C-alpha cells in the first residue's frame, strides 16, 4: 500500500505483509532493534530455508516469547471458548454491507470534524504526502456529493434537453473521452494486475455507486443530526454468519 511505502502506520487488508523497516520508524526517527536478528538490515543467512538455523530463527520469531526483555513485552492469553466466537468473515447481504459501511463513515466524520483531524495533526507532523493519504480515508463519506451530482445531473439534463457534454464535432470531446477511458482503464489495469478478475472490478464499481448514494449520504446526514443534538442513532450490529442460501444469492 502507498502509506506503507511512505513508512506510514495505516495498514489494512488480508493476506498482506509489512515492510520490516516500517516497524522501526521513519528515516529520521529510526529506532534500533533490541534483538539483532530482527533488525531490518539483518541478513538471515545464505543457507537453505529448511536448514536448522533458519527454522530455529523462524520458530523464535513466531513464538510467544520472542519479545521478552524488550519494549514489546506483553502478557499473552490463549482464549478458546467452548462456543465459537466467530462463525463468519464479512457481511453477506447488501443491507449488512451498507450498514457496516455507514457505521464506519460516521466514525470517519467524527474524526474529520474534530480537533484531531488530518489537517491539524497529520500535515504538520507527517508531511504533505502522508497527510493526503490519511485525508483520503478520513473524507471517504464526502464522496456522496460528487457521486450524487454524477448520478442525477446527466439524466436531468437529458430529460430537459440541456447539453452538458461536448459534441463529437468539438475538439473537447476527445479530451473528455481520453480522461474517461484513461481513468477507468488505469483502475481496471491495476485491479487485473493485482490478481482480480474484470467481473469483480465491475462489481466494485457498482458498489462504489451504491455506497455513494446510501451509506456515504446517510452517514453524513446522521452525523449532522447528531452534532445538532437532534438524534443519536445507536450502534448497529451487522450479521456475519455464513448462510448457504445467502451465499448462493450473492455468488
How would you portray this structure in words?
This protein is an all-alpha fold and 251 residues long. 51% of the residues lie in helices and 0% in strands. It contains ten helices and no strands. It has helices at 2-5, 52-62, 94-112, 118-126, 128-138, 144-159, 172-193, 198-213, 215-227, 244-249. The radius of gyration is 24 Å and the shape is extended.
Summarize the structure.
By secondary structure, the chain is mainly α.
List the helices and strands and how they pair.
Elements: H1 2-5, H2 52-62, H3 94-112, H4 118-126, H5 128-138, H6 144-159, H7 172-193, H8 198-213, H9 215-227, H10 244-249
Helix pairs in contact: 3-9, 4-5, 6-8, 8-9
Q: What Rg do the Cα atoms give?
A: 24 Å
Reported for the largest beta sheet, the result is:
none
- The end-to-end distance, rounded to whole angstroms, is 28 Å
Anisotropy-based shape? extended
Estimate what percentage of residues fall within beta strands: under 5%
Q: Could you tell me the number of beta strands?
A: 0
SS field, number of helical segments: 10
Q: Tell me the structural class.
A: mainly alpha
Low-confidence stretches: none
Order of helices and strands: HHHHHHHHHH
Helix share bin: 40-55%
Mean pLDDT across every amino acid position: 78
Amino acid at each position: 500500500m502507498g502509506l506503507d511505502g511512505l513508512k506510514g502506520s495505516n495498514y489494512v487488508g488480508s493476506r498482506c505483509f509489512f515492510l520490516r523497516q516500517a516497524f522501526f520508524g521513519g528515516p529520521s526517527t529510526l529506532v534500533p532493534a533490541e534483538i539483532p536478528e530482527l533488525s531490518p538490515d539483518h541478513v538471515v543467512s545464505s543457507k537453505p530455508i529448511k536448514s536448522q538455523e533458519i527454522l530455529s530463527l523462524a520458530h523464535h520469531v513466531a513464538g510467544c516469547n520472542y519479545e521478552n526483555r524488550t519494549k514489546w513485552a506483553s502478557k499473552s492469553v490463549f482464549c478458546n471458548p467452548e462456543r465459537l466466537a466467530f462463525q463468519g468473515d464479512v457481511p453477506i447481504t447488501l443491507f449488512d454491507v451498507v450498514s457496516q459501511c455507514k457505521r464506519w463513515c460516521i466514525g470517519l466524520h467524527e474524526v474529520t470534524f474534530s480537533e484531531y483531524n488530518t489537517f491539524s495533526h497529520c500535515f504538520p507532523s507527517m508531511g504533505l504526502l502522508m497527510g493526503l493519504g490519511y485525508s483520503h480515508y478520513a473524507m471517504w463519506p464526502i464522496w456522496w456529493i460528487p457521486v450524487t451530482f454524477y448520478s442525477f445531473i446527466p439524466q436531468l439534463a437529458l430529460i430537459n434537453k440541456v447539453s452538458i457534454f461536448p459534441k463529437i464535432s468539438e475538439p473537447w470531446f476527445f479530451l473528455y473521452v481520453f480522461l474517461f477511458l484513461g481513468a477507468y482503464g488505469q483502475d481496471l489495469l491495476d485491479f487485473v494486475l493485482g490478481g482480480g478478475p474484470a467481473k469483480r472490478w465491475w462489481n466494485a464499481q457498482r458498489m462504489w455507486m451504491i455506497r455513494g448514494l446510501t451509506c456515504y449520504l446517510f452517514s453524513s446526514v446522521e452525523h449532522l443530526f447528531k452534532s445538532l443534538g437532534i438524534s443519536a442513532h445507536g450502534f448497529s450490529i451487522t450479521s456475519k454468519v455464513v448462510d448457504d442460501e445467502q451465499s448462493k444469492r450473492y455468488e
